């Protein structure tokens, strides 16, 4: 019997590329997104079913999970991919954007995981693959503290759940990508710069410039990340944590080899 993967955030980027890859490689796919009415590509696949799902909406999560289980019978892997970035100085951030950052990137996976636990326990197994970032294990850019907070939270959640879910044969995996081409991440981000406070301008400008150039600088393609996810889902790799990409691996090795004070000074020197 074909295996089934449930994916959040399949309207673009990594989520959509993963949905297509799994659909083309013998899996059934429960593809979830906030606006299914706009989807034209994934609707072409017979083995893909699309469900409306905003990860911050608990009743929508419960409905989508129940419907997918009803349609496919068994879900083998859940890819918690949906995410977005709130960037800019903490002092300038709107209250609702602070809450939203946590709601989407940390509370969202919590909502999805909780909805799947009864199913996975009754199946005596399952796998959650949580899409983190190199910003979940390293602090790498100025004015990224809220995004860092959300992905560090996802990392802590995933490590903590490892122990809790081991007795039920439920596997947890984390991927930390360093960014890739082929997604809408930069377009979807919230960036706080409009303010009378000019003190943060040098850092804001440096970060804006970095994001403007990000797609020309990145060597990784979204498919490189999809292949890592496929290796995990197919159990060709059993790594708990996979760091993907040159920049992420470079920062990780700095983080692991330098005393924290030296790491922080090194990274801050890269931008201003
Ligand atoms: N691109 C990078 O540089 C980078 C680096 C490290 C980690 N990541 C992580 O990789 C994951 C995928 O991002 P991406 O690069 O593929 O960017 P992307 O193209 O912007 O994809 C993000 C997806 O998440 C969805 N989403 C956002 N808020 C949602 C919500 N409340 N409920 C459900 N879905 C929601 C978006 O849907 P809508 O179309 O409805 O907004 C979109 O489908 C994210 O978790 C991101 O944090 C990205």
Automatic annotation (TrEMBL):
Kindly state which keywords UniProt assigns to this record, in alphabetical order. Oxidoreductase
The source's superkingdom equals: Bacteria
* Stored SUPFAM superfamilies: NAD(P)-binding Rossmann-fold domains
Q: Which GO terms describe its molecular function?
A: oxidoreductase activity
Record's keyword annotation contains Amino-acid biosynthesis = no
Q: Which is a Pfam family this sequence falls into?
A: adh_short
- Per the similarity annotation, which family is this? Belongs to the short-chain dehydrogenases/reductases (SDR) family.
**Name the UniProt record assigns to this protein:** Short-chain dehydrogenase
């Amino acid at each position: 019997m074909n295996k089934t993967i449930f994916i959040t955030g399949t309207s673009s980027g990594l989520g959509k590329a993963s949905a297509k890859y799994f659909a083309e490689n013998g899996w059934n796919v429960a593809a979830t997104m906030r606006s299914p009415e706009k989807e034209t590509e994934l609707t072409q696949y017979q083995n893909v079913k699309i469900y409306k799902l905003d990860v911050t909406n608990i009743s929508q999560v419960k409905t989508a999970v129940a419907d997918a289980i009803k349609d496919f019978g068994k879900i083998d892997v859940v890819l918690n991919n949906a995410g977005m970035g709130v960037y800019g100085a903490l002092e300038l951030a709107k209250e609702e954007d602070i809450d939203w950052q946590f709601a989407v990137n940390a509370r969202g996976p919590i909502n999805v995981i909780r909805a799947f636990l009864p199913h996975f326990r009754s199946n005596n197994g399952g796998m959650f693959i949580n899409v983190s970032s190199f910003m979940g294990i390293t602090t790498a850019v100025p004015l990224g503290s809220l995004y860092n907070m959300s992905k560090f939270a996802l990392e802590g959640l995933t490590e903590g759940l490892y122990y809790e879910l081991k007795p039920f044969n439920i596997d947890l995996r984390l991927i930390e990508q360093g960014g890739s081409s082929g997604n809408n991440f930069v377009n979807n981000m919230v960036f706080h710069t409009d303010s009378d406070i000019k003190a943060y301008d040098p850092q804001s400008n440096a970060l804006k410039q970095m994001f403007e150039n990000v797609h020309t600088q990145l060597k990784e393609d979204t498919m490189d990340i999809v292949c890592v996810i496929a290796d995990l889902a197919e159990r060709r790799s059993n790594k708990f944590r996979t760091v993907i990409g040159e920049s992420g691996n470079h920062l990780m090795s700095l983080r692991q080899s330098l005393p924290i004070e030296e790491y922080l000074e090194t990274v801050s020197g890269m931008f201003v």
